[in-house]
Specification:
The chain is of the alpha+beta class and about 800 residues long. The strands form 4 sheets. Strands 14, 15, 16, 17, 18, 19, 20, 21, 22, 23, 24, 25 and 26 form a 13-stranded mixed beta sheet that branches. Strands 3-9-8-7-6-4-5 form a 7-stranded mixed beta sheet, sandwiched between helices. Helix 3 (about 100-115) packs parallel to helix 10 (about 295-305), helix 11 (about 310-335) packs parallel to helix 13 and helix 17 (about 480-490) runs antiparallel to helix 24 (about 700-710).
């Protein structure tokens, strides 16, 4: 979503790809500031569900120890005895020596699972140990979209070997069967990797269907993480996946002893004794990582003995009763429940992060700790209140907590201008009929604000003077510029060449504009900002499927504009409310335009209030490449310009540009309707576009170039090499530039690469752009993104730029991540 001038040098400025970890840091840090994340219990002892947070006792509804066995005296005594017998640790690699407790625990676990077991220090280390051994170079891996992060991390270990890895939409068994049918001819094994019970929404894998597919397709193998099903389901607590089936011959299961099993460590469960032996023998963490320590082993042995007794059935029944009571109570209080019945995990949808933050804080103040389910574990607009139920909760505890949540919910919605219809819509869940007649709380609140949102779908319907008062001089999107874009990007043959335009203005009763922006909805390549090697792989697939990994995106501005696309009157007391109206309108447009994401872009100045507002409304911040400008043309001659540069810049200009200047004929063309000339310019542009995988976009339509060539606000700077230098008299470069009020804005370049290396055509074009801007008495040159080194040598200053992104569905982004995992596969 960037100005595409000087495409072929863009790689230098794309080195600042936004880091996923930066996004997570922003979101988590915001929760820490709100006092709802990174909490610590007080130092007072506790022996149940009541803990101390922020100096106040609260009931804990965030524990994954679903059976409450961590307080069982037998398990505590087992840990104490192991420490008394063997010390606090036994620090030797298991490849050499293991405590005898390991052997005892393994025997007990194999009775629980009725299968072969390998004990691991943690479940994550179990994945890391197993996958490089299980997955061969000729295999394929299919990851469920929501499989646990620890599984996805472990899969990366096989990327250098070229293993085929792809992502599947969550629990879509129809798509899984299609992929098996496609891949089975090329791959010896196809590994499907999923969770038994998923940790956020509490939904489960369709185990019966997966077993049926394994029976039907001998190539299919199943690797599953059943951490949240362990202990609470199945005979002897063997877990959700094995509660109705024995372990399948082509299945490997990993599970955790850290949750309902109430000790520590993990277990890999195998149907094949030899495969278990091999993983135990050569799995990396089982060779060199630290072992489970005596206390954890002692506790695990005690817990395993409980699992092998009749007590475990009673405990499971008590928990099931609590889960069923919770389900019925949630129905009673009519909260927007997203989770499935049956798991000990419940998820109450709130849609936007701001409502989630508000509710978690309210519940904490009321004496109840619940979790915030937020990006990246769930999509931004599917934020929710996640809570867990354990055997230790009483019916009274559960009802009081849910009653409190039901009381606080409408108050939080009122504060955050949210509504139940918006929440149900965000999760694509039909709203119960009895609630559909309820009036939106948000609508009532907004009526008191005396704000009005005006929506137009053509710039011709927007008063020209009003629009230019807001945006003239900010870039190429004054009234005339947008009129040109509308003409160029409508009624075209290809879908990517047709954009939809929306203009939003929010006014107060006096007619003052508090916020305004324009949006374009366009079909874009999902890998537009991906590294070159990733786009290269995807383009190979697009030869057969041109629209593979493409999405419709709503963007403030457009692919051909740069600058501050969002006007905000920060002096107005209701500016945040005005933005709220814009957000809500864009969410509606997201559905209407069938788009998958929203991007607000080209911000340069950090503002904490604005940043928090964006996060609250489901946007996360991403870095964009630096944009560049020459803010002052305070010189009169080329020699003065040369003298104004740094020593490095002068040396560059002298050696790489001026030495070839006499080889070029430079022409300025204001208006052209010569079809042959425009067609040639378009071919020069395509030369650049086809090389530009670092900024991977669809080609602009020829219709745009015809519009630009005859528009009085644009001009074409054409460079031709002298006939004595080359054998052709055709132009080697053309630059399309916008003549803005105070600025000269080169937007599109086309090049003949034949002599670029010998004569530095690109550098010459950049130099001539600067000279042209001065001749027109412009105050600045806006050089956009890309080619940072080259532009800085000519006096341009880079500016850090960022955008805010809202993802309706994280699937496409996850697919890109999976492709990057494949390495050269």
């Amino acid at each position: 979503m960037k100005k595409i001038f000087l495409h072929h040098k863009i790689k230098q400025s794309m080195s600042k790809h936004h880091s996923f970890y930066t996004t997570v840091d922003q979101i988590v840090s915001y929760g820490v500031e709100k006092g709802i994340l990174h909490l610590y219990t007080g130092n007072q002892p506790f022996n149940g569900i009541r803990i101390l947070l922020n100096g106040k006792p609260v009931l804990n509804f965030g524990s994954c120890s679903y059976l409450g066995l961590e307080f069982d005296p037998r398990i505590k005594e087992g840990a104490k005895k192991a420490i008394d017998d063997y010390g606090t640790q036994f620090s030797e690699s298991r490849a050499y020596v293991s405590l005898g407790l390991y052997k005892e625990l393994q025997t007990l676990l194999e009775h629980i699972f009725d299968a072969w077991c390998v004990i691991t220090p943690t479940t994550t280390l179990g994945h890391i140990a197993a996958m490089p051994v299980l997955i061969e170079d000729t295999d394929a891996v299919i990851l469920d979209q929501q499989v646990h992060n620890s599984v996805q991390t472990a899969v990366q270990l096989v990327k250098a070997r070229g293993v085929h890895i792809e992502l599947l939409r969550h629990n879509r068994m129809d798509l899984l069967e299609e992929r098996i049918a496609t891949l089975r001819g090329r791959h010896k094994k196809i590994w499907y990797m999923a969770d038994g019970i998923y940790s956020m929404f509490g939904d489960s894998s369709p185990v019966d269907k997966i077993y049926a597919l394994m029976d039907q397709y001998p190539e299919l193998h199943y690797y599953a993480d059943d951490a949240h099903g362990m202990s609470i389901h199945g005979k002897n607590g063997r877990g959700f996946l094995l509660s109705r089936h024995g372990i399948h011959p082509r299945m490997v299961m990993a599970t955790s002893l850290n949750k309902a099993f109430a000790c520590g460590g993990g277990v890999l469960v195998f149907a094949d004794k030899e495969l278990a032996r091999k993983v135990r023998t050569v799995g990396g963490p089982l060779l060199s990582s630290g072992p489970m320590q005596p206390s954890a082993l002692g506790a695990a042995i005690a817990s395993a003995k409980i699992h092998l007794s009749r007590e475990i059935t009673d405990m499971q029944t008590q928990l099931r009763d609590n889960i069923e009571f919770t389900r019925l109570t949630l129905e009673k209080y009519k909260l927007p429940v997203i989770s499935e019945a049956g798991a000990a995990i419940f998820f109450i949808g709130v849609s936007l992060p701001k409502l989630g933050h508000n509710l978690v804080k309210r519940m904490l103040d009321a004496g109840y700790y619940v979790n915030l389910g937020i990006f990246p574990t769930v999509p931004m607009k599917q934020t929710g209140i996640r809570f867990t139920i354990t055997r230790l909760h009483t019916f009274s505890d559960i009802e009081k907590m849910i009653a409190t949540l039901a009381t606080e919910f409408p108050l939080a919605m009122q504060e955050e201008n949210s509504s139940l219809p918006e929440i149900y819509k965000a999760f694509k869940v039909p709203m119960p009929e009895e609630m559909q007649l309820d009036k939106s709380v948000a609508s009532v609140i907004r009526q008191t604000l005396d704000l009005q949102l005006q929506h137009y779908t053509s710039i011709q319907d927007v008063p020209k003077s009003e629009w230019n008062r807001l945006f003239e001089g900010r870039g190429t999107f004054d009234w005339e510029g947008l009129n040109l874009l509308e003409a160029a990007f409508t009624e075209n043959e290809l879908p990517e060449d047709n954009w939809e335009f929306d203009y939003l203005l929010v006014k107060d009763l006096q007619g003052n504009v508090l916020a305004a922006t324009f949006l374009t909805t366009a079909l874009c390549k999902d890998d537009m900002l991906s590294p070159r090697e990733i786009s290269g792989k995807i383009e190979l697939q697009r030869k057969a499927a041109p629209y593979y990994l493409t999405s419709r995106i709503i963007c403030s501005g457009s692919l051909l504009t740069e600058g501050q696309h969002l006007f905000i009157n920060r002096n107005a007391p209701l500016w945040k409310d005005a933005l709220q109206l814009i957000f809500e309108k864009i969410y509606c447009l997201l559905e209407l335009r069938q788009a998958s994401q929203i991007v607000f872009r080209d911000f340069q100045e950090m503002n904490a209030d604005f940043d928090n507002l964006m996060v609250d409304n489901g946007f996360f911040k991403v870095n964009m490449p630096d944009c560049h400008s020459i803010a002052s043309l305070n010189w009169n001659t080329p020699q003065e310009f040369y003298n104004s540069l740094s020593a490095n810049g002068r040396n560059h200009l002298r050696k790489k540009v001026l030495r070839h200047a006499n080889e070029f004929k430079v022409e300025v063309i204001h208006i052209s309707d010569w079809e042959e000339e425009i067609d040639y310019w378009y071919q020069l542009y395509l030369n650049v576009q086809q090389k530009s995988l670092e900024l991977n976009t669809f080609p602009l339509p020829l219709k745009l170039f015809k519009q630009l060539a005859k528009n009085e606000h644009w001009e074409m700077l054409q460079l031709t090499l002298n006939g004595a230098s080359v054998a052709t008299d055709k132009p080697c470069c053309v630059v399309f530039s916008c003549l803005a009020k105070d600025s000269y804005i080169p937007m599109i370049i086309g090049l003949d690469y034949t002599h670029n290396e010998s004569f530095g055509i690109y550098r010459q074009a950049l130099y001539q752009v600067v000279l042209r801007a001065k001749k027109l008495n412009k105050q600045r040159v806006l050089l956009g993104f890309s080619a940072s080194v080259e532009k800085q040598k000519l006096g341009a200053k880079p500016a850090t730029t960022f955008a805010y992104v809202h993802l309706k569905d994280s699937y496409q982004a996850a697919v890109l991540a999976a492709i990057s995992v494949q390495g050269n596969g």
